[in-house]
Amino acid sequence: MTGEVTIAVPDAGTNSVTDRLGLLFDTHHQRLYRLARRMSRDRDEARDLVQEAFLRAARAPASIPAGATSEEAWLVRVLVNLCRDRWRRRAARNRLGASDEGLHAPAAVNPENALVARSVIWHALRALPARRRAVVILYELEGATIEVIARLLGITRTTVRWHLAAGRRQLANAVRNSGTKA
Amino acid sequence: MRTLREKLTAGDPVASEPPADEREVQRIRGVMLDEATGRRPRHRHERLIWMATGAVAVAVTIAALVRQPGPPLDGTATPLAVWEETRSVATRRQLQFVTAGGTRIIWIFNEGLDLERQR
Q1: What pLDDT, on the 0 to 100 scale, is given for residue A10?
Q2: Are A51 and B8 a contacting pair at CB < 8 A?
Q3: Most buried among A74, A94, A96, A141, by the most CB within 10 A?
Q4: Cα dist. A53→A40, A79, A114, A137, B55 in Å?
């Protein structure tokens, strides 16, 4: 008895791409979500940012460099660029007169109130330009070194230091102003 | 006096909120993989369709250019070298001529014009 046996051979190219993307997601999504959450105003925005970053990876898998640290840096840069796009759109809307709470730190009614102080500094943080915000978050909250931040964001160490100093100054001013308004 | 780091840490949403929901994480993963697998064949088809459309457009343009009569190239043309009178039941009567420089002039007559009667 003779018969024809058909074996479905999956597209090797597609499989390798999806395998790589799956691994990329599994390796980096938690770390990327943490950064996105600190960069954004709420959980929904953070999820959107993470999804968009991985969609960009899916659309151009060949542009992702090999190696875990390079992949991480690529994803972080994409995320920061996405944040920057959103920040610019908000800033443009704000210039046109639309209100946007994310760009204005609320006046602290009572500077002794820790909750209000936290709110002030986080609002001020979210009003920083995306790259500066990322530098402050990576350094102050994630404990990354200047060198690591420079590698992640693809900028020089001098630029990282400059953003860090400017960011700290802006946050300090925001806290000081909220104290004087109270 | 609390440092900037302490103030930021105190309000850190990552520390105060639960981690991302696992179902949501898997949904995002699925969306990403769908984008990678589902889009590429469509892109391939789109490219083929665009290439075929372009080829047809080029062929039609070439055919139209070949069929279009131009001015004579042997230098014998005069300003009113080529006269054409087109009489067609389906189309309005028109008179066309091409100058030596290649300019095509088309006169379209009124439907009521009858040259035989006016002669």
Answers
A1: 44
A2: no
A3: A74
A4: 14, 6, 34, 18, 37
